[in-house]
Amino acid sequence: MKYQEKISLYSRYSTLTLLLKFIATLLLTNKFTKNISLKLVNFTINRKVKFITKFLNNVYFGGETLTEAKEIVNFLGKNNIYSVLDYAIEGENNEQFFDDAVESTLKLINFSSNEKKIPYVVIKPSSLGAIHIYEERTKSRTFLEENSDAWERVLARYEKIFSYAYKKSVRIMIDAEQSWVQSAVDTIAINSMINYNKKEPIITLTIQCYKKESLSILKDLHVIAVGNKIKVGVKLVRGAYLEEEIINHERAIGSVFSKKEETDYNYNVAVKYIAENIGFFSPFFATHNEVSISNILNEDMLKHKPCWMGQLYGIGDHISSNLVNSGAKVCKYLPYGPFNKSLPYLLRRINENAVSIDTFMRENTIIRKEIISRIRRSIK
């Protein structure tokens, strides 16, 4: 895919912020400096270094409130880029937090129903129930009595969200989790799709292509779609828990590819399968990989079909801009919320397969050109 480099998305940055972004992407172009940088970010956040916090929040997040996020939604909309809003709080584990997350999601659904530039609302399974409850459901069909009640509350939270989204005609994207959680999440998603995806794909689940069984899951979803006369919403990603899966291999379910090249190949095979059966899928291709993007754009069966492509907010702006220029429907995955609680979301995605070093190298080159261009204009 040949890119015509556009820089309009960089106009939202001051020259100082752009210079800091240049340094950040430069550090992320090398595996050694990348790991050190991410550890340094964690350290500075824990020490509440305001300068670093402000920079990261301005560049990679939509703000701490929905009002702040709306400003970014409007800006992206002017560039014909849609937004996928994600209230990206992580790390809480109590019933009140889970109930509050539902209410926040309902407000976001209501907000999105009046915003043409927000096609999806994201929910994170771990914000709706305790990890150990999902894990017990994944690994066993029987519950301890107290966990059985907790599971029923989890199901009720999903139902409340899905029914309201259906009423408002807003699509829900279910984020991926670790393998010891994912099976239970997929069961909820599939059962709910059968109820709510008859007319339009209200519910979308996520398939992580670093998992060796991901193509089998995709084929199973195809069978379910045919049998129930529904369209299955599928978000295709490489995955963001690889290191955690490897470290917790005794806890993990299934297996993962050990090489990035294998994951890349599997992702592209999955794209091909979806394209060949597009009548039963409503796909969202989340990728910064230029080879995968070219494959998607060149798939004849996907041309003139309703599918989306997405990148993380603040990363790969050159990719998003050029996809828009090619006529694709493009989203930026826009997290917002209390910064100290949502930062793990970003660090995990940068550290895993979600964003490759090649992406940062390409972006670093374009940012350098933009900085030089600004300096030249200021001299004239």
Automatic annotation (TrEMBL):
The keyword Zinc does not apply. GO terms for molecular function: FAD binding; proline dehydrogenase activity. Keywords: Membrane, Oxidoreductase, Transmembrane, Transmembrane helix. InterPro entries: FAD-linked_oxidoreductase-like (IPR029041), Proline_DH_dom (IPR002872), Proline_oxidase (IPR015659). The keyword Membrane applies. The chain crosses the membrane at residues 12-29. GO terms for biological process: L-proline catabolic process to L-glutamate. Residues 76-356 form the Proline dehydrogenase domain. Pfam families: Pro_dh (PF01619). Signal peptide: none annotated. Gene3D superfamilies: 3.20.20.220. SUPFAM superfamilies: FAD-linked oxidoreductase (SSF51730). It comes from the Bacteria. This is Bifunctional proline dehydrogenase/pyrroline-5-carboxylate dehydrogenase. It comes from Xenorhabdus miraniensis.
